[in-house]
Amino acid sequence: MKLAEALSLRADSVRRIEQLRARIVGSARFQEGEEPSEDAAALLAEAGEVLGDYETLIRRINRTNAAAQIGSDGTLTDALARRDALRLRHSVVTAAADAAAGKSQGGYARQLRSELKMLSALPVAELRRQADDIARELRELDVRIQRSNWEVDLLD
Description:
Layout: H1 3-27, H2 40-67, H3 76-101, H4 124-151
Helix pairs in contact: 1-2, 3-4
């Protein structure tokens, strides 16, 4: 099985666990004299099995990510950490550029000459350029990660 398939199975498992959780909560209590819509104990047992499979799958994915090399980016784990950091960096730089440009002020502009003039403490154009560079690097890294997901076999 390829890593990408395991990642898809992981997402399916998360959805299944959430569905089971909702059904368990809905069936955990019922009115006296009526039957519950589903057997909460059986659903709980089924959730336990799905969670066990989920844990095994996560362990295999993590082992694979830690062992798989993807060129100059190091391991997949290294690349994933870099991607997370780039996403946060892009968010910070974009927020700084927006604030310096006055976008967070709701379009307020000076009405009279006697009002205080707002000045930018940061170079907006430079921040926008940095944000564009970070976004490009993030896209390129994400492509390398996705490619490796379809090339790397899942470890046991």
